């Protein structure tokens, strides 16, 4: 049975398109751009076709077309005009909209075809930075406003993870590790937000470092095993929800005690929870970063 989301509220359209609900209503009333249906309680609902049309209209509008001109374009010609614009300079915006539709419909084929079309003119690094990061930043809002469900979020993030892993594996097959520093990428216990760490691992491998990727929810004391095998270790982690504000200080202290036997070990951390750390009081071996870009510059 197909349970994909087929009808949307005006707030859903606002969240997915970036066009305010008030503006959407004006466009409906003045230009008949969308034709919502009404529930038994007289609440607007919109079809998937209306969402697709609004996303196309948004792309035209953001590229300098006046809404009065867009309203005069026959519906069947709007996608053609969008494709012309995309071919020139708006691949990123079109791709973002296509990825949203793929997410809403749990449509892996649309995701892959969109991804492959963007790769024609962009490197994987550019796709991640210019398309995936803005898309991921929107997911939180879309989830909080019930525009998408947790299932939608898991679906799209799993596909993005897959692309990171594929591109990482390509590099591992092609390159010989030459640098002596060894990176150990891990997430603390109860931390499962992995995309940022996966991408950092890709950048680490790209630069010729040896990488030991441990992944999600790693107990701190298990890192001792890695210390038995390597010197010049740099542990790197992403603190999104864990350790919490109340526990993050103790976590750093425990890490310091654990690494006494490896005095050259470093710890690089980034993520939301690092805002609770006072940089001036951190041990010398700990370094915090505000973004993935800052870590990449440090590599």
Instruction: Report the C-alpha radius of gyration, rounded.
Output: 23 Å
Q: Architecture of the largest domain, according to CATH? A: Orthogonal Bundle
The DSSP helix count reads 13
- Helix-strand string: EHHEEHHHHHHHEHEHEHEEH
Major β-sheet, in short?
Answer: 5 strands, parallel
- For the record, the CATH class of the largest domain is Mainly Alpha
Q: Any idea of the CATH topology of the largest domain?
A: Multidrug-efflux Transporter Regulator, Chain: A, Domain 2
Overview of this structure, please?
The structure is a single chain. This protein is an alpha/beta fold. It folds into two domains: 160 residues, Multidrug-efflux Transporter Regulator, Chain: A, Domain 2 (Orthogonal Bundle), CATH 1.10.1660.10; 123 residues, Cobalamin-binding domain (Rossmann fold, 3-Layer(aba) Sandwich), CATH 3.40.50.280. The chain contains 13 helices and eight strands. A hairpin with a 5-residue loop joins strand 2 and strand 3. Helix 6 packs across helix 8.
Layout: helices, strands, pairs:
Elements: E1 7-8, H1 10-17, H2 21-31, E2 37-38, E3 44-47, H3 48-62, H4 67-70, H5 78-88, H6 91-104, H7 108-118, H8 124-144, H9 150-174, E4 182-188, H10 195-206, E5 210-218, H11 224-227, E6 233-238, H12 248-258, E7 266-270, E8 286-289, H13 292-298
Parallel strand pairs: 4-5, 4-6, 6-7, 7-8
Antiparallel strand pairs: 1-3, 2-3
Helix pairs in contact: 3-5, 3-6, 5-6, 6-7, 6-8, 6-9, 8-9, 9-10
